[in-house]
Amino acid sequence: MLILVRHGRTSANAAGLLQGRVDNELDEVGVQQAKQIAAALTRSDQRPDRIISSPLLRARQTAQATAELTGLDISIDERWAELDYGEWDGMPISEVQASDWQRWRADTGFAPPGGESLAQLNSRVSAACDELTAAAADRNVAVFTHVSPIKSAVRWTLGTADEISWHLHVSQAQITCIGFRGPIPRLTSYNDTSHLSR
After folding, report:
1. Which residues are catalytic?
2. pTM of the predicted model, to two decimals?
């Protein structure tokens, strides 16, 4: 099973800022969420056999809580980093010009100034998912990542167009699971946050 975990909260998340490659640490709530994720993963059939993380600090800190409970090492994979928002990074969405935002939503090849397009993100995440298919078919591989890569991995699973990302919501500290029937990926659970209410 491929287990996709969104990192815990940061102060930028709490403030509603675009947070791509800005390397923020977890806030107090995020640290607690990381512990709740770790508890959920280690007491269920989702217990990881392998842990992979985005290189960004907020994902690594979230992964570390699970690594400590399982004794597993964390492998870093750059392909699971958040979308690069370029000059928009750290901005409130309300400060992005409406025309630029509309163009971004309409054109998957459009990138924020100095940033990355949705098409580029989907290319790197698809490659990462392809590479993990064999391992995740018979073991639990937990990937600690971000909103956009999780949306992209769901797109890869369902075989849909790039634009599906605009129709998905990914909650803070959620868990999404992708199972496999042979090499065929299947979305088995999506955006689960039940562990946060325990």
Report:
1. 7, 82
2. 0.96
